[in-house]
From TrEMBL:
<feature type="domain" description="Tr-type G">
    <location>
        <begin position="6"/>
        <end position="204"/>
    </location>
</feature>
<protein>
    <recommendedName>
        <fullName>Tr-type G domain-containing protein</fullName>
    </recommendedName>
</protein>
<keyword id="KW-0648">Protein biosynthesis</keyword>
<dbReference type="GO" id="GO:0003924">
    <property type="term" value="F:GTPase activity"/>
</dbReference>
<dbReference type="GO" id="GO:0005737">
    <property type="term" value="C:cytoplasm"/>
</dbReference>
<dbReference type="Pfam" id="PF22594">
    <property type="entry name" value="GTP-eEF1A_C"/>
</dbReference>
<dbReference type="InterPro" id="IPR000795">
    <property type="entry name" value="T_Tr_GTP-bd_dom"/>
</dbReference>
<keyword id="KW-0963">Cytoplasm</keyword>
<keyword id="KW-0378">Hydrolase</keyword>
<dbReference type="Pfam" id="PF03144">
    <property type="entry name" value="GTP_EFTU_D2"/>
</dbReference>
<keyword id="KW-0251">Elongation factor</keyword>
<dbReference type="GO" id="GO:0005525">
    <property type="term" value="F:GTP binding"/>
</dbReference>
<dbReference type="Pfam" id="PF00009">
    <property type="entry name" value="GTP_EFTU"/>
</dbReference>
<dbReference type="InterPro" id="IPR050100">
    <property type="entry name" value="TRAFAC_GTPase_members"/>
</dbReference>
<dbReference type="GO" id="GO:0003746">
    <property type="term" value="F:translation elongation factor activity"/>
</dbReference>
<dbReference type="InterPro" id="IPR027417">
    <property type="entry name" value="P-loop_NTPase"/>
</dbReference>
<keyword id="KW-0342">GTP-binding</keyword>
Amino acid sequence: MGDDEKVHINIVFIGNVDSGKSTTGGHLIYKLGGIKKDVIEKFEKEAAEMNKRSFKYAWVLDKLKAERERGVTIDISMSKFETTKYHCTLIDAPGHRFHQEHVNRHTTEHALLAYTLGVNQMICCCNKMDATTPKYSKGRFEELVTNFSPLLIKVGYNLSDIPFIPISGFVGENIIERSTNLDWYKGPTLFEAIDQIKVPKRPSDKPLRLPIQSVYMIGGIGVVPVGRVMTGVLKPGMAVTFAPTGVQTEVRSVEMHHEGLIEALPGDIVGFNVKNMSVKDLKQGYVASNSNDDPAMEAVKFTSHIIVINHPDGKIPLGYTPIVDCHTSHIPVRFARFVNKLDRRCNFVLEQEPKFLENGDGGLVEMIPTKPMVSETRVELSLLESSRM
C-alpha cells in the first residue's frame, strides 16, 4: 500500500505506573527506525549514570528532564511510525498520579474509562515476560489472561476482538519480530496486531470540533494551537471560532508531524497557525469550529449520565463539585440536580430525583460548570476526583 493510501490512526498506551508503557512504545519506535542507534546509546549511557539502566527506551518518549529524573511520564508524549496499512501517532499517557497497590482494580478502571470515552478497539499486552518465574512463563501469561478477561467483558468489550500478546518491552520480545523465547505463543506480534486494527469511522461530514490541547508561540510563524480533530474538516483559509469566548480568526496553515496538510480529518492531531491572535487569547479546553457551520458555544449547564465507581464517602450529595474532564477541558462542575437513579446494567429508572447517589449507582445529573466550558449534546464525559469516580 502506498503512503498516500495509508489511513492515519492514533494509538494510546494506557496502564499503571511502571507497567512499561514508555519503554514498550520507545522500543517500538526504535525498531521501526524512528530513532537512530547512536541516540539510543546516548540514552543508555545517561540512564546508567542516573542508575536507571532500564529506562533507555522509555526516554524516546519521556522528553522532559523531570520525567527522566523521576522515571515516570508526567505529560502526554506523541511519536509517529508506520505499519503496512497505517500512519500511526503513538500516544504515551501518564499512568497514575499516585503509587497503586491494587493494580488489578485500577487497570479495570483504565479499561472502563477507555470504553466510556469511545475506545472500542484494544490490544492487551502482558509485559515483562522476561521477569516471570520461570522466565517467559506460559502459565503466568495464561493466568493473566484468565484473570483479566472477565473484567473486560464486564466493562463492555468483546473478547473475540481483543488479542492478548505476551511481550517484553525492554528486551523487545514480540514487539516486531516473533520471539523464540515465547515460541508457545502463536498469535500476532504487537506490530502485526496494530496492522490488524479495523479502520475507524471518520465523522468528517459533521461540523468541525477541535478541542485545544495546548497553545504555542513559534518564532517567525505566530500562534499555533494544537489539538485533535473530533469531527468535521479543518483547512487553511477557513474562518474559525473559538468557544467559549467566541473569538474569531482565520487559519493560515495546518501541520501534522511537521508536514503541511491541505485538510485535517477526524482523528488527526494537528497544529494550525492562526492570524492576529495572542497566546493569551486561547487556552486548553477551548474548542475550534467552523465560523460558518454551526460553531461551538458555551454550555451554561448540561445533563450527564454518570456512574459512581468508588467514592471514599460512600455517597454523593447535591452540591458536590468534582472536576470534569470533557474533551480537553478540566473544570469543576456543581451537581445541581439528580434527575434520576438508573440501573447501570440496563439504564432502567430506579428512582426519580434522588437526594444522593451511592457507590455503584448510575444516574442522570444536571451539572453547572463553575467556569466557562464547551460541551456538545450526547458527548461522553469523564468525571475524575483523584480517580475515585
